[in-house]
Write a sequence for this structure.
């Protein structure tokens, strides 16, 4: 996210509440710089050569009580860097396993809070909102628990004042979600 990100404003409101109950660790997916998986990287993974950074972060995610994911809406989902991040952390024996017929999540997380802002008029649950549906699918694979999406949308089609008000209102709403998270 950019420093002046509307998504960041909502995230900070959630963190103000969550910090009283949880030790918070922030992982910046851009700084993590985990590249998209390629056929070569998948072969290395199959051969047991997995970057130590990916293993370390996957272990942190698997051990987390709660996850908060904050990302702006880009191209019907979220930025590719976040997708690449998840691809790298989807590690057999760390975030999931299988029994020969189906996959089972290994994460201990009970809930995921997904915070996003959308410039377009795309409410959560709309077929064009692929970020929420992807995270629900990932939660099913990894065993992350309930995914709660908090979003402000249609921000690019209102005045700057109206958009700022909508972001502030969403920040107030996310605080109430964070109280029981």
């Amino acid at each position: 996210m950019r420093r002046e990100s509307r998504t960041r404003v909502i995230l900070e409101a959630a963190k103000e509440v969550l910090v009283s109950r949880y030790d918070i660790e922030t992982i910046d997916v851009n700084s993590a710089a985990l590249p998209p998986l390629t056929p070569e990287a998948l072969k290395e993974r199959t051969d047991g050569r997995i970057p130590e950074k990916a293993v370390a972060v996957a272990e942190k995610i698997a051990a987390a009580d709660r996850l908060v994911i904050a990302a702006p809406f880009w191209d019907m989902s979220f930025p590719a860097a976040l997708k690449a991040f998840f691809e790298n952390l989807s590690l057999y024996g760390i975030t999931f396993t299988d029994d020969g017929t189906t996959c089972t999540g290994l994460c201990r997380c009970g809930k995921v809070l997904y915070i996003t802002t959308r410039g377009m008029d795309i409410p959560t649950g709309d077929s064009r909102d692929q970020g929420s549906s992807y995270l629900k699918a990932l939660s099913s694979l990894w065993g992350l628990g309930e995914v709660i999406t908090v979003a402000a949308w249609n921000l690019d089609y209102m005045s700057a004042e109206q958009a700022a008000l909508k972001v502030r209102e969403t920040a107030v709403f996310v605080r109430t979600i964070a109280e029981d998270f």
